[in-house]
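Hey team,

Filing this mostly as a record. A colleague (T.K.) asked me to run one chain through the structure pipeline before their review meeting, and I want the input and output archived in the tracker in case anyone asks later how it was produced. No errors, nothing strange. Just documentation.

Input sequence:
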Amino acid sequence: MKIYDKAVWQIDGDIPSELVENHFKMTFKWLAKNNLLSEIGKEELDEGIDCEASLNEEQLTNQLL
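Output structure:
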């Protein structure tokens, strides 16, 4: 499985966790708005984005892969 980004990678790079979480929320909302999230990605968004968030190929529709 390809992992494109993890919140913890950015946080470990000294980016404030609040900023990282906002980035992931914005990204997931944009993907959802454009019908690019798979059911797994939609579940991630519905469950809430936090500092444990990640973006991987299973969360995206085939349109992006």
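Quick notes for T.K.: The first helix runs from residue 7 to 12. The CA atoms of residues 11 and 17 lie 6 Å apart.
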